[in-house]
Amino acid sequence: MGSTDQSRIRNFCIIAHIDHGKSTLADRIIEKTGLLTSREMQDQVLDNMDLERERGITIKAQACRTVYQAKDGQEYILNMIDTPGHVDFNYEVSRSLAACDGAILVVDSTQGVEAQTVGNVYLAMEHDLEIFPVLNKIDLPSAHPEEVKTEIEDIIGIDAEDAPEISAKTGQNVDQVLEAIVHKIPAPDGDPEKPLKALIFDSLYDSYKGVIISVRVRDGSVKAGDRIRMMATGAEEEVVEVGYFGAGQMIPCDELSAGMVGYITAGIKTISDTRVGDTVTDADRPCDEALPGYKKVQPMVYCGLYTEDPTKYPDLRDALEKLALNDASLFYEPETSAALGFGFRCGFLGLLHLEIVTERLEREYALDLITTAPGVVYKVHKTDGEIIELTNPSNLPDPSEIEYMEEPIVKAEIMVTKDYVGSIMQLCEERRGEYQNMEYLEASRALITYHMPLNEIIYDFYDALKSRSRGYASLDYELIGYQRSELVRLDILVNKEPVDALSFIVFAGSAYDRGRKMCEKLKDEIPRQLFDIPIQAAVGSKVIARETVKALRKDVLAKCYGGDITRKKKLLEKQKEGKKRMRQFGEVEIPKEAFLNVLKLDEQ
Amino acid sequence: MEIYVHIPFCQRKCAYCDFLSFPADADTQKKYMKALLTEIRDFPCDPPMEVSSIYIGGGTPSFIYAEAVAKILQTIRERFVVDGDAEISMEANPGTVTADKLALYRKAGVNRISFGCQSADAGELKELGRIHTWPEFQESFRLAREMGFTNINVDLMSGIPGQTEESWERTLRAVAEMGPEHISAYSLILEEGTPLYRQYIEQKNILDTGVTQKEMISILRRKHAAEDGQGMRQTDADPEIRQTDGKQDIRQANGNMEIRPADRVQVCDAGHLWLPDEETERLMYDRTAEILDAYGYHQYEISNYAREGYACRHNIGYWTGVPYVGMGLGASSYMSRTRYRNTSDLDRYCRDCSLGRKWQALTEKDMMAEFMILGLRMTDGVSENEFLHRFGKTADRVYGDVIRHYTDLGLLERENGRIRLTRRGISLSNTVMADFLP
User: Between chains, do A555 and B430 touch, taking CB under 8 Å as contact?
Assistant: First the structure.
């Protein structure tokens, strides 16, 4: 396909509240269109390209290209770009949106506008995307499209009069959506003659092809044999193959040119060379400046990861290496804990990222993990003038050696509908936030800005925010610097033994409250054992909270005769299995989930 | 060898019962008897094996026609060699026996009778869904003595909803005063699939929503009143209910309560989560041994107490690895390192008793674990010599770490070549036993 055909490319994403029919519509669009243009079809026949061979490779790509024969008789290339959905990945979402020119907003015509709808639209608006709404599920008797249209106009403020009324399930009126894509979403307007300038919006590692980067070409073009450079990381490689993602397939093509969305492979071995948001350019004829918006994603949250079985440490190392191939934002380095043995201090984008990684390690790599309390990076100014960047509470020097400590402060921008302004401000105050500013973007929508310790945000702030705004608040934050603060290390002692894995740094004023909650929660997590187990929270040598797990008094099978032996044995086996899931701490057995659960203290 | 015979019928299912038992009409009983007798008659043993004890359990063996018991014993005698001094027990429910029936049992050779009394307290009996009253039990007991039974067991139950330490002591003393040779005192265990369990889950589900005890009671009242208004649905007891998982039970609990309205209200009025708490239960358990000891009953197993010479030989057989054959619906057998279980499906069993039999081969490790787990149920514990004799290695070599660990914690003790649970170890025996499993 020649580089003059930009007018017949449409790059878009679908945004929707959960369950409003995003993926059904995507499936329907793929079904109603083809994967190849008629010219490509011919080329394929001529080139005798073995499509079947490629079918074997199924990749979950974040983009899919289809070809649509529009009513005007022309063929249009439609690139659908998928977006992840959580604040931890806000940056990735913003890069995916930046790769699009427009967005389809799917609204369930039986439900109307909902929280996520609003949040997603705001994000898309920030990227100047052309948004057009579609009303889904009109085949259902409870559909009320007219009212929902009014809602869209009132709440979101976009024109919904001509919105197609469709059923993604039955396929009804989906052709109207396809026409709207062609007519409402602007065509790309890059310059194919300029030096290559392409945005990386996703990258994944394949053991055969190496790193596969998903790009949106802004200007210029790229083909096999070209030498490319990633502008931020400086990595250079020769392009092996370019192409695009069909539904689950990689289809190679000759060239990717301005306006196109596709993939590049270049024998790149490490994914950290291909950072999302970076700009790809021609190494021999580089563009003047990179695309805006690139950020080197820095881990914001640190915790220790250990295997329950200490001999599995090498397995954890291998697994982390493999995961990191596909996750440039995952940081890890070896560390040792007195209680847990060898492990890794790992850095994550946020708590959800942490959870996703640990879950994948456990499920895909069959590892049993123990996770320590997440923390941020503190700066410890010692009396001798040395400054330590503390990512592990165990390394906190003796209080006598500490002059003062600093903690990271973020600028938190919270967008919220006006009804919840009060409760959100209250939450920020509770979390040591310093009010900066509030502006009304529209009559119903406010942007509140606070300076807050990051420490407070990783401590369940996001959930609290969502629950206090019924899901209508969205949060964005960026690090603005460090600030001196009264910080102490809170230690948790189980049966008088400090569990180093449970120590964390906390604002002195919150120590008592957090300590008490930790003890209460831990009490519920530790099953009763053969003796009383004191659980204490301490700052230094001072115990500030205490709970007791009462000893088990009675655990006995009253009956066991000839007919029950098998069944009673099974009960005991279950009990034994339960013991296996425990970790021995001195005399006490602690279930491994206890750690993660204790860290998930609710806001109540 | 020992023989167990299962009679899976009862007049009405009790609220706590998860045994394979259900009400049945006379035709079903006859059909079952025919299959049962066939199973006994066709048992492959040539030359005939010697039988040291027979136990007819249920269900309620005294519920079916009395001649059946005589017929069963007669058929066993035709097929096996029953020792002259064999212990021949049968279970009976107070209120289902008459002088005539008891005389027939005695004549047929039954020499030990076991009454399911459970409690001397009218309210507690009702809570359990028992069909008899305390005076009915007293009368049955008196009749049994009159008909010449010199070895009688009485089953009792602690931990009943609404039960207090005082009422439990009253029950114990009242029964001990009557002087049976043997008393089995069980702690109530909530078994999945029983009405009591469903009731427990129902209450727990309500409490888990964060309401107070008082609110829960009024919620239950309203809910039950609404259900009663529509007419309660009665379910047939499902013999396989034990195999349903917890989730299903919760669902059933919400829709299908097999609890009579009167019982429910009383349960709620108790004003606590209707089960005695763990500490109370433990105190009840300790008091049991003390009180019964004063009446001359020696505790020889976790839940069993007997006068000198009256420990149940049949049950001791189970705990010491004596081979046994179980005849009847769902009955288990154990011999030559194999355990098998008859089908629990009545129709299948009646068609051919060997249909759907499940076999399980035991490894040496299983055998050793069972030797320990079952043996430790008895207050005498296990003999280290016996272990060495059976398995060719010392218990220390196999279980040294476990034995040491629990001896150090004071839950096991070793004395004169025996290993046994301490008093505290009995209360926590599951914890100890689990560690003997392979």
Answer: yes
Q: Which among A531, A538, A454, A449 is positioned nearest to A489, based on CA atoms?
A: A538
In chain A, pLDDT over 90 holds for what percent of residues? 40
User: How far out from the chain centre does Cα A205 lie?
Assistant: 18
The token pair that represents A602 in the structure block: 């609710």
B116-143 tens-digit pLDDT: 999 999 989 988 888 899 999 999 999 9
**Residues 6+ positions from A81 with CB-CB distance below 8 Å:** A11, A12, A13, A62, A63, A96, A99, A100, A201, A216, A261
CA dihedral (A264, A268, A271, A277) in degrees, to 10, reads -40
What is the spatial distance between Cα A75 and Cα A1, in angstroms, rounded to a whole number? 12
Residue reference for tokens 């078994």? B191
When scoring A528, A531, A532, A554 by the number of chain B Cβ atoms within 10 A, the one with the most, hence best to mutate, is A554
Handedness of CA A23, A29, A32, A37 (dihedral sign): negative
Please choose, from the candidates B355, B354, B371, B283, the residue with its C-alpha nearest in 3D space to the C-alpha of residue B319: B371
| Mean pLDDT confidence for B303-308 | 97
Looking at the predicted structure, is the pLDDT value of residue A140 above 80?
A: yes
With CA atoms as reference, the chain A residue closest to B358 would be A566
| Cα separation values, A160 from A20, A132, A135, A154, Å | 17, 7, 9, 10
Distance from CA of B315 to the nearest CA of A (A): 7
pLDDT for res A239: 95
Q: Are A557 and B409 a contacting pair at CB < 8 A?
A: no
Distance from CA of A306 to the nearest CA of B (A): 26
Q: Is the pLDDT of residue A2 over 80?
A: no
A323: Cβ–Cβ under 8 A, 6 or more apart, which residues? Answer: A330, A357, A360, A361
Q: How high does pLDDT run on average in chain B? A: 87
Smallest CA-to-CA distance from A282 within A355, A365, A197, A345 is with A197
When the pLDDT of each residue in chain A is averaged and rounded to a whole number, the result is 84
Whole-angstrom Cα distance, residue A55 to residue A64? Answer: 15
Q: Say what the pLDDT of residue A52 is.
A: 35
What integer pLDDT is reported at residue A339 of this predicted model? 65
Please report, for residues A227, A262, A510, B144, B198, the alpha-carbon distance to residue A542 in angstroms, rounded to integers and kept in the order given: 63, 60, 15, 70, 47
Q: Which residues contact A139 (CB under 8 A, 6 or more apart)?
A: A167, A169, A170, A172
Indicate whether A354 pLDDT > 90: no
Q: First CA to last CA across chain B, in angstroms?
A: 27
Which value, in Å, is the radius of gyration of the alpha carbons in chain A?
28
CB of A561 within 8 Å of a chain B CB? The answer is yes
- State whether A575 and B431 contact (CB < 8 Å): yes
Contacts 24+ apart (CB under 8 A), B354-363: B360/A566, B361/B337, B362/B337, B362/B338, B363/B438
Q: What is the mean pLDDT of residues A125-153?
A: 91
Q: Are A359 and A330 in contact (CB under 8 A)?
A: no
Tell if the CB–CB gap between A557 and B331 is shorter than 8 Å: no
Query: What pLDDT shows up at residue A54?
Result: 41
Q: Which residue has the tokens 């109307």?
A: A112
Tokens matching residue B202: 């129902």
**Residue at token pair 């001094």:** B85
Answer yes or no: pTM beyond 0.95.
no
Q: Look-up: residue for tokens 């010697």?
A: B50
**pLDDT given for residue B233 in this prediction:** 40
Q: Which two tokens stand for residue B72?
A: 């069963």
What is the C-alpha to C-alpha distance for residues A331 and A234, in angstroms, rounded to an integer?
20
Q: How many CA atoms lie within 13 A of A604 on its CB side?
A: 2
Sort strands A369-371 and A331-337 into parallel, antiparallel or unpaired. Answer: unpaired
The more confidently predicted of residues A475 and B51 is: B51
